[in-house]
Amino acid sequence: MKPATVHDLDAARARTLALVAALSDPQLTAQHSPLMSPIVWDVAHIAHFEELWLLRELGGAAPTDPRFDDVYDAFRHPRAERPDLDILDPEHAAAFAASVRARVLAAPQTAAIADFTAALLADDFVYSMVVRHEHQHVETMLATIQLMATGHPADAGDGPGRAAITGDLDGEVLVPAGPFVMGTDTDVAAYDNERPAHAVDLPAFFIDRTPTTNGEYLRFIEAGGYEDPGLWSAAGWAWRRTADLRHPEFWHETDDGWSRTRFGRAEPVPPAEPVQHIGWYEADAYARWAGKRLPSEAEWEKAASWNPGRGIGEKRTWPWGTDGPESPPAALWGTTARWGPDAVGAYPDGASAGGVLDLIGGVWEWTASDFHPYPGFRSFPYPEYSEVFFGSEYKVLRGGSWATSPQAISTTFRNWDHPIRRQIFSGVRCARDA
Are residues 286 and 355 in the same domain? Predict the structure, then answer.
């Protein structure tokens, strides 16, 4: 195994362990919301996934316990059922994870391998998949901790975030008409739903320079946005009324103004941060109130990855260029150092070629698009990662959040969720026709 691969595996595990270390056994084993698993389930699921792919699939190893194939299979049991399964307690989940990792690091390299295994090993894809999977579950666990009544013992609520250090934040960026390359055939870590690369020809459009801030979203609330059915789709309005929603999740109106609960701590809503914890229906209604619309995911990716000065051929893995997660803009999130996004415009060095800011690493941004396969899609390495979710039931999110590891995101990465989901670190950026 390459030293860089060992480093990435170790870094992902260190992030997991740092997150759960301060939690008590009751916090780890409780189900804090039916939308989320008990955190201890995530810990053992990470280990089971690693064993499945790096020991059993690559090396033919026997499972640690055959029942884990049932209780830690995310597709056999919805999250609401998982507390009632025969899952490991915190001590044994941690021991299972440590045992799997030790066996992975000690495993010999396979000499004669089948075609499928060769495909998994090509460009170390399977190792990248396991690393990304663990980072993704860290973000899931952070969303679970946000739903905990007591929050996290870490010092997550103190101090403001990094302030904007650019003065040109308002307004929009014009993205000219023309084709660009959507998706990728060259990013070795890309998932199947990001492939194959294909040309998409778009008309010109405007996209907001930054995501919508809390201050901007507050104006939508105060203007009666949650009370005006004309701003909402029929399904969105029905959902808003049934759930009696009047503001983003975790917000509260007080005598002194608006506050929010962030990891168990109440604090004033910071106006310059991007709004988060809103669902797709809210994002759609806000965009309509603003006289705009949500961007399609093709528009979002073009704004993030295309260099208008280089024609159709230049594709950026990151908005600022092709440097990897070591580059300065990427190094500033995914560390859970502050447990929240910084102010919009805080990282001007991360701007796209067209000058769009904060496309990666602030909040997940809802798009107008349903989650569908690209032309020529082929499922790999298992259909349950992407294929079973294709359809109009899910909306695509782009860009990653402050909780997303830089190693688990790029301009082609596609996230998806139900339009009612608000516990995720999701926000909105608007667009309009040119």
Answer: yes
> How far out from the chain centre does Cα 131 lie?
14
Question: pTM score, two decimals?
Answer: 0.94
Do 260 and 285 reside in the same domain of the chain? yes
Please answer whether residues 59 and 114 qualify as being in contact, where contact means their C-beta atoms are separated by less than 8 angstroms: no
Write the CB contacts of 216 (distance below 8 Å, at least 6 apart in sequence). Answer: 275
18 and 125, same domain (yes or no): yes
Residue-wise pLDDT for 184-224, tens only, equals: 998 989 999 999 999 999 999 999 999 999 999 999 999 99
In the chain, which stretches have pLDDT less than 70? Answer: 109-114, 153-160, 310-313, 324-338
Domain that holds residue 376: 159-434
Phi-psi map region of 53: left, alpha, beta (phi>0 left; psi -120 to 50 alpha): alpha
* 135 neighbors 405 (Cβ within 8 angstroms): yes
Residues 313 and 369 in one domain: yes
User: In angstroms, rounded to a whole number, what is the distance separating the alpha carbons of residues 417 and 389?
Assistant: 9
What confidence score (pLDDT) does residue 384 get?
Answer: 86
Q: And the tokens for 316? A: 């950026």
Q: What is the pLDDT of residue 392?
A: 96
- Report the 10 Å Cβ neighbour count for 65: 14
